[in-house]
Specification:
- The structure is a single chain.
- This protein has helices at 9-12, 38-52, 70-89, 111-120, 137-148, 162-169, 172-183, 206-212, 224-238, 248-258, 263-279, 287-307, 311-325, 333-347, 354-366, 392-399, and strands at residues 60-63, 98-104, 154-160, 188-195, 215-218, 331-332, 370-376, 382-388.
- The chain has 418 residues and is an alpha/beta fold.
- The chain folds into 3 domains: 38-218, P-loop containing nucleotide triphosphate hydrolases (Rossmann fold, 3-Layer(aba) Sandwich), CATH 3.40.50.300; 222-305, Helicase, Ruva Protein, domain 3 (Orthogonal Bundle); 309-408, Orthogonal Bundle (Arc Repressor Mutant, subunit A), CATH 1.10.10.
- The protein has a 5-stranded parallel beta sheet, sandwiched between helices. Strands 6-8-7 form a 3-stranded antiparallel beta sheet.
- Helix 4 (111-120) packs across helix 7 (172-183).
- The protein is globular and about 75 Å long.
- It binds a DNA duplex (22 and 22 nucleotides) through helix 15, strand 7 and strand 8.
DNA sequence: TGTCCACTGGAAGGGAGGGCTT
DNA sequence: AAGCCCTCCCTTCCAGTGGACA
């Protein structure tokens, strides 16, 4: 008699490459040690230790590209602060009250939101919390000052992606936070700003700029050998012994190092390579799985970009794809526009003007979905030469998932373009 | 050398929508 | 709730452009 099986058995019986917790390979996982960031941790710890002696730590601005460990280092220090506080509670240590507040300015990006979020951390009673909206910003600020100043404490506010805040709503809130120490008698507040964009400082008022950047730190990109160390450490924790070929971490590291030493990308490559190996029932992760992972991540990324395009951009892309399917790979703006207008007519939506479509074409170019170069054809005029940079088949398949344009699938462009 | 083509891309402004303030 | 303000998306207008061609 055969055992009863379900569709999942094949996967359940496959060799286990991962240990139980594959979260270890997610960029959000915080390991016990952060290799090759010892100096940065040391430097920040020394700045922050001022707080433990009752002083106000200098404001710090941290620069570094994505995946250089900025947020990881901050979260590492936040954990250390928490551990220190536990020692205070056990009366092993005697240091002033500290608060470590982490805000991501991609999510909280208005002056009101920042002040409200910080203020509410110090209000225990739910009914007297600062509302999401409705108060004048000045009132929120005054409330924040009075709550912070109730008892002596040192507050460290981390503003991750601070550039987003500045681009979204200027430097008003930074001005408030920079002057808050003048308005408090008992407590002190300092700011750690994190950014991957050096230019945003130019948009700050000179007074805010100098107050904010009392200390500056730059996190350099990891090189291939540093990335390899990071990966090996994580791989040891995440994979079962003997399931990862020698050289796999080196390939991941080398690929990620080509892209400005992004540790996040390196970890993604390793995790996805492991998943591909496990899914195909292989016993070991090999370099080939890493290359497959690279393709998968790139395709997923393109798919995500295309899926989230607004309808009009999707129609423009569809127009380019349809030309491509009919053998025309190099198009002018005029040709794309005519086909786009035809598709708009087909789906029953009003076409935008050609001027606007010029902008949408430039956006698609910036996203890397198409390639558009301005070219002059002499008497034929000056226009953009446009071609798709992604596989027509893949792009169309992704576009067809949009219910608004699904029915375009078998449509053939009416016009003949010479 | 001047003309002409088919746009490009900057500027200004309208209007819808959403958040802030009173 | 209503007014104000800002942002985003879009239109309209238009000067400017590179290069083939007469």
């Amino acid at each position: 008699m055969t055992e009863p099986t379900t569709i999942f058995h094949r996967y359940l019986n496959a060799p286990h490459i991962f240990r139980k917790d594959r979260e270890i390979l997610r960029p959000s996982y915080l390991p016990e040690k952060l290799p090759h960031r010892e100096n940065e941790i040391e430097q920040l710890a020394s700045i922050m230790s001022t707080a433990m002696r009752g002083g106000r730590p200098s404001n710090v601005i941290i620069f570094g590209k994505t995946g250089t460990g900025k947020t990881a280092v901050i979260k590492y220090l936040a954990r250390e602060v928490q551990r220190t506080e536990e020692l205070v509670e056990k009366e092993v240590l005697d240091i002033p009250d500290m608060a470590f507040i982490y805000l991501n300015c991609e999510i909280v990006n208005t002056p009101y939101g920042i002040l409200q979020n910080i203020g509410n951390r110090f209000i225990k009673d739910f009914s007297s919390m600062i509302p999401f909206t409705g108060w004048p910003t000045e009132k929120v600020y005054n409330m924040l000052v009075s709550k912070l100043d109730e008892s002596p404490k040192i507050v460290i506010v981390v503003l991750d992606e601070i550039d987003k805040l500045v681009y979204n709503s200027g430097d008003d809130v930074l001005y408030y936070l920079a002057k808050i120490n003048d308005d408090m008698k008992n407590s002190k507040l300092s700011i750690i700003g994190i950014s991957n964009d050096l230019k945003f400082m130019e948009f700050l008022d000179p007074r805010v700029r100098s107050r904010l950047s009392e200390e500056k730190m730059v996190f350099p990109p990891y090189n291939a050998s540093e990335l390899k160390d990071i990966l090996e450490e994580r791989a040891r924790l995440a994979f079962n012994p003997g399931t990862v070929d020698e050289g796999v971490t080196a390939v991941c590291a080398a690929l990620a190092a080509q892209e400005h030493g992004d540790a996040r990308r390196a970890l993604d490559l390793l995790r996805v390579a492991g998943e591909i190996a496990e899914r195909s029932g292989d016993r070991r992760v090999t370099a080939n799985h890493v290359y497959a992972a690279k393709d998968k991540i790139e395709l997923d990324c393109t798919a995500e970009t295309i899926k989230t395009l607004p309808l009009q951009s999707k129609l423009v892309l569809m127009a380019i794809i349809m030309h491509g399917e009919q053998g025309r790979n190099r198009l002018t703006t005029g040709e794309v526009y005519s086909a786009y207008a035809e598709l708009c007519d087909f789906v029953g939506t009003k076409p935008l003007t050609q001027r606007r479509i010029t902008d949408l074409i430039s956006e698609l170019d910036m996203l890397g979905i198409i390639n558009a170069k301005v070219k002059s054809f002499g008497r034929g005029g000056r226009t953009k030469e446009i071609q798709s940079s992604v596989s027509l088949k893949d792009a169309k398949r992704i576009l067809m998932q949009d219910s608004d344009i699904k029915e375009i699938g078998d449509y053939r462009l009416k016009q003949t373009y010479l």
